[in-house]
Write a structure and sequence with these properties.
Helix 2 packs antiparallel against helix 3. A hairpin with a 2-residue loop joins strand 4 and strand 5. The protein is α+β, with helices and mostly antiparallel strands and 375 residues long.
Length: 375
Amino acid sequence: MAADFYDLLGVGRDATEDDLKKAFRKLARRYHPDANPDNAEAEARFKEIALAYETLSDPQKRAHYDRFGTAPGAAGGGDPFSGMNVSDIFDAFFGGAGPFGASPFGAASSRARTGPQRGADLEAVLTLDFEDAVLGTGAEVTVRTATVCEQCEGRGAAEGTRPATCGACDGMGQVQRVRQSILGQMVTRTVCDACSGSGEVISDPCRECRGDGRVVGNRDYTVTVPAGVGQGSTLRVARRGAAGPRGGPPGDLYVHIDVRAHPRFQRDGDDLVDRLHLTMVQAALGADLKYETLDSVEDLEIPVGTQTGDVFCVKGRGVPRLGGRGRGDLLVQAVVDTPTGLSDDEIDLLRQLAELRGEEVAPTTRKRRREARRR
């Protein structure tokens, strides 16, 4: 007695299409001939579960099975695998490939794409100033690419002529062959050699592009750089890649961002970081400064007694967040500079300050005065 198809797949009789798919995928990986070489029992089981899924996944065949208990075409004693296109099952599950990464029926079983081929994707590097990367800009990139031939308008045929429908594939761009195998009838599809998958042949090619429908040259494109892009970011510019042959759609252009260093600012995520040099007097007594950010001038209050390493936060003056969700902050780190190049009067004033504060300093000598004036 033949095994019940529902039991073979391990599902109930109320199984949904999704239940059937999951069950078949799991079992196909387990019993696939590639995973069980020279195992006749596994091969037979694989054929059974393939037939079970092929039957139950088709509403009409499933209704027939539920009513009569047999797959359509098997009641008369014929081969239940005849007419069964197992390669189509794998096309639906694995994109034309088997469950182990390659087609279980040979490379020719994957479906060929009909019509003009899509052009290649291109890459370019765009070097930006720091400010332009942070605040956004428009910039030009030059790429060497294939563009539509103006002479034939991309058709590939000489003026006054037109491409003809390929007789080998009737314009489908692919040819189909049927063969018998241990799993039953197999349908394989391959790209048509006569037209390379375009579905058309050209008897009188364009002299400018030699029938390709495109020519190669340099092309300038304006790229919109959104505010907030960073080093190593990649922008996708749709339909700015190479034109496809014979009128095929263009690919995309991928622009990789390279950002020049800034003399003051560094980036930390969405924040900007700067080191602000202060004099000893500014740090000790405090100061009110006009501070230049990348795109504005802000009032910055330096507190009394500021030390090297103290950080002041300027809210909302950092990097704009991609997608327009506000900006990061600007973090200003204080660096207190020791005074140099002192005059004799300044040296005397500092010594007086040290005496008032009770701080011990080295005695003043002619050598030390010379050094203090030079630095």
